[in-house]
Every structure is written in structure tokens, then in C-alpha cells.
Amino acid sequence: MDDKLEQLRQQAVETFQAAADEEQLEQARIEYLGRHGQLREIMKDLGSVSPELRPALGKLANQVSREVEQAFAQRQEQIAAQVASQEAEAIDVTLPGRAPRVGKQHPLLATLEEMIEIFLGLGFTVVEGPDVENYYYSFEALNYPELHPAMDEQMTFYISDNALLRSQTSPVQIRVMEQQQPPVRIVAPGRCFRRDTVDATHCHTFYQLEGLLVDEGVTFADLKGTLEVFAREMFGPQCHMRFRPDFFPFTEPSAEIALTCIICGGEGCRVCGNTGWLEVGGSGMVDPNVLAGVGYDTETYTGYAFGVGVERLAMLRHGIDDIRLFYTGDMRFLQQF
Ligand code: DAH
Fold first, then answer.
1. For residue 163, what are the β-bridge partners?
2. CATH code, residues 107-334
3. What is the distance in A from the centroid of ligand 1 to the CA of 281?
């Protein structure tokens, strides 16, 4: 009888522990602890044991019974916990789906593309030139006098004596004209580099959109009219453009381009320094020296050119007061567009 109880204890505990789920556990419970289970059967036999042995055996039987019940309860708890955690991990099909994060265009690129779109509508095509330029395209072909300050190491990043990070997109004008005869009608977007100290309105790397049109009979009025149309398309009919005399080696005459400050509508504010105008670029009639340099007949052809700062326009468009926000990659800023 002793042995039987001992065996039962071992078997029952092992079986409970091995039960993989509620169903198996319940089967095991019926087998060992049920009304017709093994434990009851042994208890029944106790009646036929001699009275001297009965108390000791009874005690052992009770102890075994307690242990087996404990083993069952313990496994029951474990299985319940397992089920609960599985349910927690399960997919709830009634929850709304998780949308993938879709990226969007950087405000600078969006502005540039809008600018390009307007010029495409005016019959211009898009070309690109290299970020790393040589001395000839950067300065010589653009009619810079020797020792012009723009060539200074203080203004321009040199890679070697003859290779530099372009400080403007104007070299693309030369590359295009070398490749084709007039009529030329192109815009050239791209990155430019200057040794500027970074502040709210300057950065060592920035974007320009260059424009060039060469044909027979092109006048200053064409330049002004084209840029007026551009300004209105970009900023609406209330936006006006101001031309003021300026100087660039590759244009003659040259003009600074300013637009009505759209922050204050031309009333004068902090952003425009109370003038009501914001300078956005330069322009002019292509200097005949430049045309002659690429072999164009300067008696037949005239042209205009312009270069506009993309950051400036993007800042105007969105009321952004610090150029550095474009380059820091701060999602709090970028997500607003
Ligand atoms: N390249 C000039 C600059 O970066 C801007 C400019 C002025 C471009 C006159 C032109 C132009 O094409 O004709 O300041």
C-alpha cells in the first residue's frame, strides 16, 4: 500500500506537469483526482487494511492527496497564465490598421520644383552642371576680371588650384552654350557653395536656379516680363518685382531682383528690414564678351540671364525665418509641410 501511494504520487505529479493545455490537464485530473480516480480507489482500499496499520497509512494517503492536488493547482495556474499572454499577443482584427509612414518632399525641393514648373510652362528646358567646377567655367568664361574678389579663397572652396565647389550656377550657362547654337532657353537648378559664416540667412551650401535665354532680338523688356510672370505665378497677383541696377561680370546691364515682401505685403516688417522688398537674385543682359567667348555671333544674338536663390523663395513662401531649419533634418520642422 505504501508503495502504491508513493507510485501514485510520482505519476500524478509528473502527468500534471507534462499537461500541455487545459484539456490534457483535465484528463489527468479525472484520472488521478476524479470521483473514480486512482486516489479514490486507493482510499477505498484503506478500509480493508488492518487497524494497526490504518492511522499511518491514512496519514500518508492524506499527504499524497494534498501534494497531488497542489501539483494540479500549480499547473492549472501556469496554463492559465500562458493562455492569457497568448491572448494578449493575438492580433485584434477590430483595431484600426497602422498606416506606414509615408515620406514627403522637402520644402526646399518642393519650392524648386514649383519654380521649374513655371519655367517649363514658359518654354524653358532643364539642364544640370557639375557641383565641382574648374576655373575656366567658374570665372574666366564668365568674363570675370583677373583678381576679382569672388575668386578669393575667402569666398570660394578650392579643391585644388583649378577645381572648386561652384559658388553659383552661372557656369552652366557656358557649358550649355558650348554645346549648342541659339536659340537657347534653359534653367539650371543646383547646389552652390560659399565660404559664408552660417547664420539665419546664410549657409555654406545653398541652391540656385539659373536661367539663360539667347536668341535674335532679345531685350531687357523680355527679361523683366519673364521674371514678372514668374513672380506672379509663384506668389500671386499681389506680388510685384523691383529691378535695381547691380553689377555682375557676365551681364551688362545687370539688375538686382527684389520681390514684394509677402510676409508684410510690402508694408515693411522685420523680415524685409522695413523696406517692403526682399532681394531674391540677380539678372541682366548677357555680356557680349560671354557670347563671343562661346563663339556666338554677337551682332545677331542677344540674351538675358538670371539666378535666383531657392532658399530665399522657400522662406518667403512659408514664412520661415531661419535658413538653417532646411538642413538640420528636424522632423518637427519638416512635418509641417
Ligand atoms: N550668379 C549670381 C550670384 O550668384 C546671380 C546671377 C546674376 C545670375 C546675374 C545670373 C545673372 O545669371 O545674369 O550672385
1. 134, 160
2. 3.30.930.10
3. 7
